[in-house]
Amino acid sequence: MDTLPVAGRADLTDAQWAVLEPLLPVGRKPGRPPTWTKRQLINGIRWRVRVGAPWRDVPERYGCWQTIYGLFRRWQRAGTWQLSIP
Fold this sequence. Notes:
Elements lengths: L13 H7 L17 H14 L13 H14 L8
Helix pairs in contact: 2-3
Pfam families: DUF4096
Protein name: Transposase
InterPro entries: IS402-like_dom (IPR025161), Transposase_6_like (IPR052909)
């Protein structure tokens, strides 16, 4: 799926995604193509962090909540979410 079926008002814009996408870690596992795009999953993470709701309440348009949470935790453990604040 290349496009989001319904975009939330705070989802990443095309311009924001164009800046962010090259900075993301690249998957290393060959196999079945993903069901949800990285953009959808990141928008789901952003929705959850912004709203403060439980992971199970992330809207389905962002993907399965377990997948969204799994990506968040994997990148959290790898340090992907670390901010460089001067």
